[in-house]
Known about the structure:
- The complex is a heterodimer of chains A (244) and B (366).
- Chain A has one domain (4-89, 156-243): Rossmann fold, CATH 3.40.50.
- Chain A is 39% helix and 27% strand.
- Chain A has helices spanning 44-51, 73-79, 95-105, 110-123, 139-150, 169-184, 196-201, 219-226, 231-243, and strands at 4-15, 18-29, 33-38, 59-64, 67-68, 80-84, 157-161, 188-192, 204-209, 212-217.
- Chain B folds into two domains: 2-40 and 168-364, no CATH class; 47-153, abc type-2 transporter like domain (abc type-2 transporter like fold, 3-Layer(aba) Sandwich).
- Chain B starts with a helix and ends with a helix.
- The model of chain B has no long low-confidence stretch (mean pLDDT 84).
Amino acid sequence: MNDKIVEVNExxxxxxxxxxxxxxxxxxxxxxxxxxxxxxxxGKTTAMRILCGLLAPSSGTATVCGYDVASQSEQIKxxxxxxxxxxxxxxxxxxxxxxxxxxxxxxxxxxQIKQAGHQILQELELGKYKHRLVSSLPLxxxxxxxxxxxxxxxxxxxxxxxxxxxVDPITRRAFWDMIYRAAAENITVxxxxxxxxxxxxxDRISIMVKGKIGAIGTPQELKEQFRVQSxxxxxxxxxxxxxx
Amino acid sequence: MRNIFLLISKEFKQIFRNRSxxxxxxxxxxxxxxxxxxxxxxxxxxxxxAWEDMDxxxxxxxxxxxxxxxxxxELTSVSDSHQANDTLLxxxxxDAVISITKGFERDLxxxxxxxxxxxxxxxxxxAAGLISAYIGRIVSSFYTSDLxxxxxxxxxxxxxxxxxxxxxxxxxxxxxxxVILVTVIGLLLTSLNIARxxxxxxxxxxxxxxxxxxxxxxxxLIPMLIIGIAEFWIGVLISRSVFHIPFLGNPLLQLLFLxxxxxxMLGIGLxxxxxxxxxxxxxxISFFVMMVFIFLSGLFSAVENMPQWGQILSKLIPIxxxxxxxxxxxxxxxxxxxxxxxxxxxxGYALVINLMAILxxxxxxx
Lengths: 244, 366
């Protein structure tokens, strides 16, 4: 097998006349942290939903973890984790209920759940809050817990959809430490974000513009390619190119 | 299987952690049963009548005593003025005026047909009908017991009330109210619950997990089914202990009907939740559907009294069949041999509606 965990080939998704994702092709390598950038409405979410098996492509192909998104979405779902800013955990369940529920869904045994769950509580220093409702936790804690739960079953690949939206800088830093630790455990990370400092933390990034991939490469490569100092300037350059 | 079990236990944890949800599910129905059954009561407790006696004979006085002695009627005025009594009727001082014409006693004794004029305030048509019937009963019993010789009485037909001998309105209403409670659980809570996961977005998280669609749906419906069943039997216990309503039928047959009916309601709830984007929409649609169900079901008014089109509509809604069979089961102890048609119809609804719901659910999520 090859070392590509995501392979996207001429993928298109239309909503009526409008092509939300317009003939994109890219790959993600096992173990890397792949940043998926783009303005609101550029097609990031649509692309991500296709890769998660939530949405069928209109044309083109994509494989995730070696499975075809159109026909093998059930296998994909067993091998990925998913977490987003808006929704993840059940607010009206306790920390432990959330952990054991999600772990159970990913077919972990009771003993495994116990062990992995306690590890999470220890790492996040949530031991005291084990039986607290998630709704009573601060946002930053919730997001860290949601991420830990999203990878509790040690997936090959985890999708993070704006995981740090609205989170304070210190917690964001801590969150990225968790992402690095996950990557070190050989979990590929596919992350969307609007924070450009976070883009710099990624191994490679792609920037979507109006349904197409505007640029792709390591942060360093992109800066050299556009002859600018920061990712911010890369995005500006892409936006200007779009206007002309 | 394991996923369904996980989802069900998650659902119960959420319900039992949420105090307001618990209140909606358990306290509200109990209060409703206690209050609604007393409020939705068409029984006449006290009827004020004005007495207008033109005959002033021994027999007319005896008839008057009959009315005074009854628990229902109260003589608020005795006057000979036709006009004064009409005014009483007009401003609510009396619900009915009974007027004895001159020659009443003479006609009675001579076995000539006699007339008594009764004027009733019929703003509330149903109540007026009842008043008229009560008055007729007193007059005819007066006639038979006071005037006929024993051997003559056998020719007079009397009626005996079966299944609800005291004509207790609650006996009739409570099975219906139980049905409404179950309907609320099945329809409203199911649609609200699924719409809520949509609104918060946790449904998206379920969709990217290995949980299959049918597992998610069963994980939602089974807890509601269990709650609905529990609620119904709690209601039966209350109606037995508080209102002394009998339960004559086979409980297992009742359970069968209940489960089938709940599946119909759960299916409608699911169908609504596929259309609704949030809890508010789900709530509005559910209420609309429930209102139609309740008013056309024959709960508050007999289906036979509806206009033709109303009767047809009534036959088209599933709740009609469940109310009818529940009443028959509880009060008459009816068995499957008389109720099998209702069971078949309800099963048909359960099948069709759940198929529709599953199709609609698939479509929206693609």
